[in-house]
Amino acid sequence: MNATMRRVAIATAVVSMAASLAACGSAKEADEKGDKKKKSGPLTIGLLLPEDQTARYENFDRPLIKKKILADCADCEIKYVNAKSDPAVQQQQVDSMITKKVDVIILDSVDSKSISGSVKKAAEAHIPVVAYDRLAEGPVSAYTSFDNETVGKVQGKALLEALGKKAKDGKVVMLNGWEADPNAAMFKKGALSVLKGKVDIAKSYDIDRWLAEEANKAMTGAISSVGKSNIIGVYSANDSMAGGAITALKSGGVKPLPPVTGQDAELAGVQRVVSGEQYMSVYKSYVEEATAAAKMAIALGRGEKVDGTSTVDSPTTKDIPATLIPPVSLTKDKIKSTVVKDGLYSVGQICTAKLKAACAAAGLK
Q1: Which residues, other chains included, contact 93 with Cβ-Cβ below 8 Å and sequence gap of 6+?
Q2: Which of 90, 192, 197, 202 could be cross-linked to 83 through a Cys-Cys bond (beta carbons 3.0 to 4.6 Å apart)?
Q3: Under the phi-then-psi rule, with left for phi > 0, alpha for psi from -120 to 50, and beta for the rest, what region is 170?
Q4: Residues 130, 293: contact at Cβ < 8 Å?
Q5: This prediction's pTM
Q6: Could you give the strand order of the β-sheet that contains 200-206, starting from the edge strand earlier in sequence?
Q7: 119 has a pLDDT exceeding 70
Q8: Helix (H, G, I), strand (E, B) or coil at 26
Q9: Nearest to residue 27, comparing CAs of 365, 311, 242?
Q10: Residues of the chain by 3-state class (helix, strand, coil), percent to 5
């Protein structure tokens, strides 16, 4: 190799190394190095939600995000897709948004790790990505969600309160969320920080895709293994799984029903809390989360800086501007002051004829 060729080879290697090091940087650095020009006027915003099995996404997140975007940007166009729990489909959906040259993407990832390549493609096309509810890997520009470890702590504390002095008198079953969802690990970590050493956890399951039927199968197996008379409490990471677990407990002849936790304040979950079948849910203000996502997306789409209330790190990106919203423990006595007061549901929606007496006892009139 002659001297000229040697110099070219060394220069190429240096450039390649620099590119590799830059790939794992901070959100701030990505913004500073990007050439996203400031834009006025209408924006095209891609909204990608992960699934339609959990009621919240179609009933709350989608309409609220749309409402909040249009309130601040009446001429903005929103292109919406739902991945229906398929990571490969969501990757294709991000690619499609890039092809359509949207100005910004709001992404609630199905699988936070596998979507990282698509997020990188968007960044290379100078399309910023707001990670919504779940922190996607890759060079995301902003993130909004709830304080997810605190969610788990809230659930764990509620279960301990329900068990009271009987906390060591039997076995607890844990139904955790889907491993592909980074929030699930944080819920579990928070719950265990409260429950470990204070209850006897006999079985712990990570439930595939958060599906109620999978939770039902796991709970049925736990009843068979642990014994129906030994189960004194069930930690369920969300409401749909709680519903599946409660069905299994009833079918398995577990009486009385042990306290079961939940999350998301789904209508069916709230009704189970009223009836006493489910001990609690976690109320998270989707209005606040949607508002934060809309503001972040519009600012980023216009090429403006985003300031969160804090910063977070993902496995690939540091110092991501983040807005984290505190959760609220939703027990029977708090339904009126939370989901009803905030307009999530009316008393009429919650209080069916079957629940009339239970609603009256809970002060829901």
Answers
A1: 48, 81, 83
A2: 90
A3: beta
A4: yes
A5: 0.80
A6: 200-206, 171-176, 231-236
A7: yes
A8: strand
A9: 311
A10: 50, 20, 35
321 vs 143, 306, 337, CA distance in Å? Answer: 6, 7, 31
Mean predicted lDDT score pLDDT of the chain: 91
- Given CA atoms 144, 149, 152, 154 in this order, what sign does their dihedral have? negative
Strands (E), 121-246: 129-132, 142-146, 171-176, 200-206, 231-236
Whole-number pLDDT of residue 21: 36
Q: What whole-number distance in Å separates Cα of residue 70 and Cα of residue 56?
A: 20
Once rounded to an integer, what is the mean pLDDT over residues 85-95? 97
- Do residues 11 and 266 touch, judged by C-beta distance below 8 A? no
Per the rule left: phi > 0, alpha: psi between -120 and 50, beta: everything else, 164 is: left
The closest of 46, 51, 93 to 264, measured between CA atoms, is: 51
Residue 107 near residue 57, CB atoms below 8 Å: no
> Could you give the CA distance from residue 259 to residue 232 in angstroms, rounded to a whole number?
7
Please give the average per-residue pLDDT across 164-193, as a whole number: 96
Tell me how far apart the alpha carbons of residues 166 and 187 are, in angstroms, rounded to a whole number.
Answer: 24
Cα(first)–Cα(last) distance of the chain, in Å?
87
How buried is 93 (Cβ within 10 angstroms: 0-12 exposed, 13-18 middle, 19+ buried)? buried
- The answer to whether 275 touches 355, Cβ cutoff 8 Å, is yes
d(CA 328, CA 287): 14
